[in-house]
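Hey,

Quick one before I head out. I ran the complex with adenosine-5'-triphosphate overnight. Inputs first:
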Amino acid sequence: MQLDTTLGVTRLGHYRLIRRLAVGGMAELFVAVAEGAGAFEKPVAIKRILPRLAQEPEFVKMFFAEAELAASLDHPHIAKVLDFGEEGDLPYIVMEFVHGVDLSDLLRSTKGPLPYAEAATVAVQVAEALQHVHDHRDLHTGAPLGLVHRDVTPSNVLVGYSGGAKLTDFGIVKATSATQYTATGALKGKLSYLAPEQARCERLDRRTDVYALGLVMFELFTGRRMHRAMSEVELLARVCDGEYTPPSAVRPDIDPRVESIIARALLPDPQDRYACARDISAALEALAAERGWVLSMAKLSDYLEGQIPNPGPVTIEPSVPRKISAAPAVARTATLRRAVQSRGRSIAAISVLLGVGIGAGLGPTLLGSDDPPPQRAPAQPPEAPPAPAEIAAEPTSVSPAPTPAAATPVAEPEAVKPPAPRRKRRKSRTKPRKTKPGLNSSLLPPSQR
Ligand SMILES: Nc1ncnc2c1ncn2[C@@H]1O[C@H](COP(=O)(O)OP(=O)(O)OP(=O)(O)O)[C@@H](O)[C@H]1O
Ligand SMILES: [Mg+2]
């Protein structure tokens, strides 16, 4: 068994690692192949926590607790969690491999808004995925779990070449440890996607995800992030206050009905927002029908291919001939059993860590205007994981915007100074993409938040 992830070929249980997709402060993401009986081979994505975090029992417990919840979800627009295990003391989660790009990649490529129909297609699919999460019930008792994703961001929406968007990362490796990891940029790229109540460490519910979806829709329909670059402190203040920039401030010709939908999702008081994600998909579908926008996976697929050509299926190098046996046993180690048994305790721990994560992340670092550009891993990843993201500070020039109006169609947009031209982001495409350790563990029943 090789566990040196800097090498090209490694194995985790019966998964053969093909290449590393991304590495960050908390986890590595690999493309791998599940090898089964006979010639069975299927690409999967594997997220494995980094060795230093594997030393923290609380973190490991959270990792498995979240994975267990995520594995119980089953929806066409949610990337499935297929398996979880541990090897060489390093826990990992096996997920459905989505052949496509993430939404932040797509938005960087479009350098502007998606066409209305395609933007609405993605938003409707993500809304439906969220509705499934929010309505999810305990498989044994049937009791509603009140789950909240809490990390709905463009990089956690995968857009497949098949034309389907899939929500991913249900708190997987999101459990922010109360240690130095929060201080190394854990919040970069995250604060911009927090709902006001989340930033204020208040009680969360499904409307927190509705807000995040509003921010994702803002980007889909304008091509720009709502909260532009500023210091983390400034950004946190804006987020806590629920400050809002009308989409028309960055895209003056935006359809006013689209703006109205986004505005309602982004209302600072959860009570004023859409009550559930399905209300957003219903509003978008009704608007699409009126406007004649065709919401279709085939169209989204064509659009994606036009933007980022399909690199073709994952190339699976021939494996070393292997012994064919019965279906391989799933790696369920002692740690895994312990983690699952102590799920209740670990979930309680997550809620404690949430507050710590936010506070500890407010260091002197500055938040960039966007996530780092996509840095897909080359076939041979570099020797060492890259240092924390370096992001240029950039003052925002958007004037303080009014609180969004309620759901009714938005009147003439108020005059808002358009943002100043932005400096070009630094790009590097030679290193594996850096993952951003997340802020919050996600799938928490309300009683445990
Ligand atoms: N199941 C998957 N199938 C295919 N690609 C994936 C899958 N999950 C993640 N990826 C790709 O790997 C990238 C890195 O994922 P990862 O979740 O580690 O980081 P991130 O999404 O950028 O940050 P974070 O999840 O902390 O917000 C994703 O942006 C996506 O491009
Ligand atoms: Mg992610």
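The first strand starts at residue 10 and ends at 12.

Talk tomorrow,
K.
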